[in-house]
Design a protein that fits this description.
Length: 297
């Protein structure tokens, strides 16, 4: 429970010229965490002291960052079960005031639009074609080829708003909607690209010689190219083209922690290209925090 009088006294001392004293005050406010943010915001509005305002802004930024780090570590420690939760936490890093309910409501609307076109008699291929139609034609989602390395391509709220993203962000949205409809679509970490796999949960190819049978995959989906469908042979050709030796992880689904780590790596690369080394360091720190929780799917 926050002591309002103590908090008020701490805030009033934020312009203290002694760096040691300021460091102690900042440390105490950081310990109190996200609960003090509304008080700090009110203090910022009431103050005309630029030093206090600047320090409040810095403290709020640090509190938000620490909160994202803590929640992402907890998410990963518990197995990263909910992909949307991880994606929202990454978005909170850049957009702490993001309206999570708005994001969830739009995703629910997309899921509802797909659900209305589905029925129990559809094959796996027909289900994917239905999803492709709703997402890429009706709602207009597409890969952002013009500004491929923009950091906004990696934040789910920005992608939903602009309807443009990179292979991973478009793929994660595709996955979240599909899995919400019990459609077994999962992410595959190809080098330099990201695709989706439709798992053969019904063992439909158990007595056939399908090229994907050994991995339990019906087919693959390229979310960056309108949901185009292909097989294992195309992955082999792609790997040969980029000079990478094949290995099993390039053909089978990865887990949600892998996806969030790739999301963070994409952001690191984006911010490196724009020279924002401060953000690069912050995101590398988050990546290091959750990397120890990486497990096999």
């Amino acid at each position: 429970m926050i002591d309002n009088n103590q908090l008020s006294a701490l805030i009033k001392l934020l312009d203290d010229p002694d760096q040691d004293i300021y460091g102690q005050i900042e440390g105490r406010l950081l310990e109190l965490g996200a609960e003090v943010i509304p008080y700090l915001e009110n203090a910022w509005e009431d103050s005309e002291n630029e030093i206090i305002q600047t320090r409040i802004e810095n403290i709020i930024q640090k509190i938000n960052y620490d909160d994202v780090c803590r929640k992402l570590v907890n998410w990963a420690r518990l197995g990263g079960q909910n992909l949307l939760t991880g994606a929202l936490l990454i978005a909170k890093y850049q957009f702490p005031e993001m309206d999570e309910e708005k994001v969830k409501n739009y995703l629910n609307q997309l899921r509802q639009d797909v659900w209305l076109e589905l029925n129990d008699n559809l094959t796996a291929l027909e289900k994917v074609k239905t999803m492709n139609h709703i997402l890429f034609q009706v709602h207009g989602f597409n890969g952002n080829r013009k500004n491929y390395h923009s950091p906004n391509n990696s934040y789910i709220n920005c992608v939903l708003e602009s309807k443009k993203g990179n292979p991973l962000s478009i793929g994660m949205i595709y996955m979240i909607i599909a899995q919400g409809l019990d459609i077994p679509v999962y992410g595959v970490n190809l080098p330099e690209h990201f695709i989706l796999a439709y798992e053969d949960e019904l063992n439909q190819f158990a007595t056939t010689s399908s090229e994907n049978e050994q991995e339990g995959i019906l087919f693959y989906i390229n979310p960056f190219s309108g949901g185009s469908i292909f097989g294992k042979k195309e992955i082999n050709s792609y790997l040969e083209q980029i000079g990478v030796k094949t290995k099993r992880s390039y053909f089978v689904p990865c887990n949600n922690i892998d996806l969030i780590m790739r999301n963070l790596n994409n952001l690191i690369f984006s911010y490196q290209k724009s020279g924002k080394e401060g953000k690069v360091d912050e995101i590398k720190y988050i990546l290091d925090l959750i990397s120890s929780y990486k497990t096999e799917k």
